[in-house]
């Protein structure tokens, strides 16, 4: 359900999902507006929060803000796709799309300008803040730390994409309710001739959260991993690299 649509023109749209965690969302919003001088649009897709998050979001009064409230938890991938579709219906020709998690804190002033500058300097069509290596069985096993390392994909949280890329290859594959939508997108980018980069500078701080694959998280991970392996079987895992930018 569309609650609010921005009424200003922007060239860059930030898309964020929320699901409860009101305290974290408040901190995210505060730091985002405090430390971002680059003009941007903000689309927040709420996946049926029940802890006061919706009431907080409705009270926000920013002219660049759009809100979508889902009637149920649609999942991360579907939520991001929904946010993107709204960005294309809003005012202005959006050239860049940024996907953020609401626990990725923009603590540093100029973080967005830096991210955009790095994309241009590295001459890439997509850039992320977290780059991962995969094993031969497509299992993500290591987040890279050094600029000269090869990587298999970049994570969706903190990903900046030229809008023309999405218009050409499509949105995230919704067969993945959660997990593996980001390597899938990077693989598709490579196949379409687009360049994938990694911003080695720490422009976003991802809050520590539970990465243990237990219970329902493990179930979703294993289901998505199985679907991913089936989709990309016999495919050579890419080795992306990026220019050294100081």
Walkthrough of the structure:
With 246 residues, the protein is of the alpha/beta class. The chain has a domain at 2-129 and 155-167 and 188-209: Spore Coat Polysaccharide Biosynthesis Protein SpsA, Chain A (Alpha-Beta Complex). 34% of the residues lie in helices and 21% in strands. It has seven helices and 13 strands. The strands form three sheets. It has an eight-stranded mixed beta sheet, sandwiched between helices. Strands 9-8-10 form a three-stranded antiparallel beta sheet. A hairpin with a 5-residue loop joins β8 (131-134) and β9. The protein is globular and about 50 Å long. It starts with a strand and ends in a 14-residue tail after the last helix.
Task: Give a short summary of the structure.
With 246 residues, this protein is of the alpha/beta class.
| Approximate shape | globular
Tell me the name of the CATH homologous superfamily of the domain at 2-129 and 155-167 and 188-209: Spore Coat Polysaccharide Biosynthesis Protein SpsA, Chain A
Measured distance between first and last alpha carbons: 44 Å
- For the CA atoms, what is the radius of gyration? 17 Å
Topology (SSEs and partners):
Blueprint: E1 2-4, E2 12-18, H1 22-35, E3 41-46, H2 53-59, E4 65-69, H3 76-89, E5 96-101, E6 104-105, H4 111-122, E7 126-128, E8 131-134, E9 140-143, E10 153-154, E11 159-162, H5 163-169, H6 181-191, E12 196-198, E13 205-206, H7 215-232
Parallel strand pairs: 2-3, 2-5, 3-4, 7-12
Antiparallel strand pairs: 1-4, 5-11, 6-13, 7-11, 8-9, 8-10
């Amino acid at each position: 359900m569309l609650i609010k649509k921005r009424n200003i023109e922007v060239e860059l749209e930030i898309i964020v999902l929320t699901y409860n965690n009101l305290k974290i969302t408040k901190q995210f919003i505060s730091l985002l507006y405090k430390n971002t001088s680059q003009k941007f649009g903000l689309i927040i897709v709420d996946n049926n929060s029940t802890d006061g998050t919706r009431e907080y979001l409705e009270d926000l009064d920013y002219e660049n803000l759009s809100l979508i409230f889902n009637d149920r938890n649609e999942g991360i991938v579907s939520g991001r796709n929904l946010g993107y579709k709204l960005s294309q219906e809003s005012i202005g020709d959006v050239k860049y799309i940024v996907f953020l998690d609401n626990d990725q804190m923009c603590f540093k002033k100029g973080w967005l300008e830096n991210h955009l500058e790095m994309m241009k300097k590295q001459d890439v069509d997509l850039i992320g803040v977290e780059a991962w290596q995969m094993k031969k069985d497509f299992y993500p096993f290591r987040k890279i730390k050094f600029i000269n390392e090869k990587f298999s994909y970049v994570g969706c949280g903190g990903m900046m994409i030229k809008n023309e890329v999405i218009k050409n290859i499509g949105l995230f594959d919704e067969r993945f309710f959660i997990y593996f939508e980001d390597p899938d997108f990077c693989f598709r980018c490579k196949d379409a001739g687009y360049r994938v980069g990694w911003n080695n500078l720490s422009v976003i701080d991802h809050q520590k959260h539970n990465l243990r694959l237990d219970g329902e998280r493990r179930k979703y991970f294993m289901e998505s991993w199985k679907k991913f392996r089936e989709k990309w079987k016999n495919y050579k895992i890419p080795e992306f690299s990026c220019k050294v930018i100081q």
